[in-house]
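Subgroup meeting minutes
Present: P.N., E.W., G.H.
Scribe: E.W.

1. P.N. recapped why we're keeping a running log of single-chain structure predictions: easier to compare across weeks, and new members can see raw inputs and outputs side by side.
2. G.H. added today's entry (443 aa).
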Amino acid sequence: MALVLSAGLLGLGFCILILLSFGANDAGRRSLAHGPVLGHVTDRSARVWARTRSPGTVVCEALDAAGEVVSTATASTGREHDCTATLVLEGLSPETSYPYRIRVDGTVFADPAWTLRTWPAPGTPVRLRIGITSCFDDREFPEARGYAALASLEPDFVLALGDNAYIDSTKVAAHRLRYRSLRSVAPLAALACHVPTLAVWDDHNFGKNDSGGWLPGKGAFLSCFRDYWPNPPCPLGEGEGCCFAARVGDVGIWMLDGRWHRTAPGESGATMLGERQRAWLTESLASSAARVKLVAIGVPWCGRMKKPDSWAAYIEERDALFAEWARCRIPGIVLLSGDTHYCSAWRIDAPGMYPLHEINSSGIGREPRDLPRERDGLLRVAENRAECFWFLEIDTASPEPGIVGTVYGPDGQIACEPLSIPLSSLGFDAVGSPYRSPGWLGE
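Output recorded in log:
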């Protein structure tokens, strides 16, 4: 009987150990609240974002093909930044894939989907696949079918051009709540753990609809934005908005902040970018050797899209910017934008410039709006289509380099005729030429 009792006690002890083990594992699973999310990647580094449920220590480890750790980054999370951390892995090799894992206070988190691939070195000819998104409200579109369709196309990275969450509040708690909700969207989380995303804001995740630099408390909202988006640093300095630049081979990316420096439209000398951001943009574009230069902002460039907070309300500043580009003879510029709740492409003619193409990608998670009545220069449009986005394929490696843009819907179907832009049309040999993109709709 004693033997039976001893065996029973041993069995009970073993069960307790198993339960304790499961409890520890469960606590470990709960300690990583959101992420990981890939942000800015270079040919030698990668930014990885994560959020813990309580303050702790987070470690990210990149592994080689043999499973050996080749790069490690460590950060602490705290309440001040909503328990978020951006970890920078360094010392990586160009165009190389790395599995990675996360440790939170010693507990290891890993998944076969968690991989990152470094970008080609600056100047390298590339073939890139890029998703362009804006305007996503997970409360209206919780299934995020647009993001699921984008993931199926296997992009190299995503550019999120504002209103990436609909916050519409001047309370920090509301900003954090909406960003946590965004990071909980399953199709987006599944994409973001292995596809880098670079983001800027627009009015609905800056603070209030049509708001600008006059908004009280904007510094706290910028802190929230930076807490949740692992972008590179702002070249204007800490606390000067969220603009930045990135480089992928011989493709350059300029992400502009159209809110932080904005003054009210109609004021004397009204500005969207502010003097310092405008000067940085033109100087860095002029000094860049990138063959393709993607210049992105959250609002439409085309003056015919007469939204009160678009470039139509700051047309003098926009035209002065174009004149500077013409004076500096900067080739390869393609304009990107969001905000409109429909996907379209436009041709903009500016004195002394080659035809400027604008790719306007909006509504990956919003209901569509009506198009403007003035359609001169309209190249493509996907009318009355919700959950759409542009997908760009940039080829600088072939004998006839160019860009092909396609609008996709949530079902993965093409929503309008693709748009082709040969790189030969993005230079000053094309100034004054009769070139029009194939299938131009304004004739």
